Amino acid sequence: MPAMQKKILVVGGGIGGLALALACARRGMPAQLIEKKAVFSEVGAGVQLSPNVVRLLEGWGLGRRLDALACFPALLQVRSAQSAALLGQLALGARAVQRYGARYATIARADLHQLLLDAVQAQGRTQLLLDNALQLISQDANAVQVTTADGHQRRASVVIGADGLWSHVRDFVRTDAQPRFSGYLAYRAMVPQAALPQALRSEVITAWLGPKFHAVQYPVHGGEWLNVVVIVQGEAPQDLHHWDHAANTQDLQVHLQGAAGALQDLVGAVTAWRLWPLNGLPHLRSAKELAFGRIALMGDAGHPMLPFLAQGAGMTIEDAASLASVLSTPALGDVAALERYAQARWRRNARVQARAQRNGTIFHAAGLQAWGRDVGMRLLGQRLLDVPWLYAAP
Ligand SMILES: Cc1cc2nc3c(=O)[nH]c(=O)nc-3n(C[C@H](O)[C@H](O)[C@H](O)COP(=O)(O)OP(=O)(O)OC[C@H]3O[C@@H](n4cnc5c(N)ncnc54)[C@H](O)[C@@H]3O)c2cc1C
Questions:
Q1: Which CATH code fits 3-39+130-178+282-358?
Q2: Which residue puts its alpha carbon closest to atom 19 of ligand 1?
Q3: Would you tell me which of 60, 75, 149, 166 could form a disulfide with 133, CB atoms 3.0–4.6 Å apart?
Q4: Residues of the chain with pLDDT > 90: what percent?
């Protein structure tokens, strides 16, 4: 079937689903996108977009909007959360373009989401259906049938699950995977830089490594705001399905005893924290876990990852580019196209999941292990932070 006649149905209008709709539209393929929420929205927090992702976004014609909304920090620095001493750093800016082929950006999630949504709407090839929660999927040799919560039925050539960590589409691809609490809690906040004392304002990315916690800060909204995330180890809140819980500074400060004054001051300057319990799935073990017949998974639906490598949104955007490429390949039938996608993506996603998990152990090391980490970082900082296999691909 010619690519333009395929009926592509995307479930989920987060960063991944919108990226896929856009990538398809740019190749001339229309799509339907169903989103369970009544309005498109993204919570207030930031994401880092490494060069592997910025390259794709620029290739989709989004470079100018990125220039307006994102920041392009010149430096990633790693500090001891206890002494504030600089342990290592990686030059970004022009060096990132030279070494990895694109810039390194930081952006508010809402800005990235809006940028993708505007681009999808400007292309005019995607039917965006809000207030449409997927309920059931069945497939036969010729098509997939999808039923939404209002009882409406739709037929499609392929269904792509971009419905996040608690994916319902995943139940129709693999049955062995239920998200579990990882033991990590993320406290997140965004503050106007103007509301911070001069000494706490920043234009670079800083990661603070402490015993059993770490913090990351970087500018967003064109540099006017600072995104701050502190990840600690602790008990899961009652309602795991909810990402977003109100949190307070006192609870967080309990985890930061012994932290350097500069970090304590930054945490103390934030008035409104949100708490996100971090959940995970076992890492991908084969292509079969990403596609079954005419149904495929992308992003957090297929391979949620801990944020210790800042790649969750990045990998879902890479998935989108890969899916649009296989779906528009004339020689591939629908099922073969999704198999090709799963084969192309599962190893890289599994590698990033594993590396993120390992980083968590290193970032939160205590005692002798923390001492070894800090020595290693001081001696080899730039080499350890430089990951061309990730940033210069795909
Ligand atoms: C603390 C933290 C820091 C992070 N930092 C970074 C970073 O620096 N860089 C980075 O790249 N990534 C980062 N991430 C990861 C990134 O945010 C996620 O991986 C990414 O947003 C996943 O996008 P997605 O589109 O796959 O899923 P989601 O954003 O979860 O979107 C899923 C969508 O599907 C909809 N949906 C769900 N169920 C249904 C249904 N039944 N029917 C219809 N629609 C449905 C939802 O409403 C939602 O709109 C971070 C994550 C955390 C928690």
A1: 3.50.50.60
A2: 312
A3: 149
A4: 90
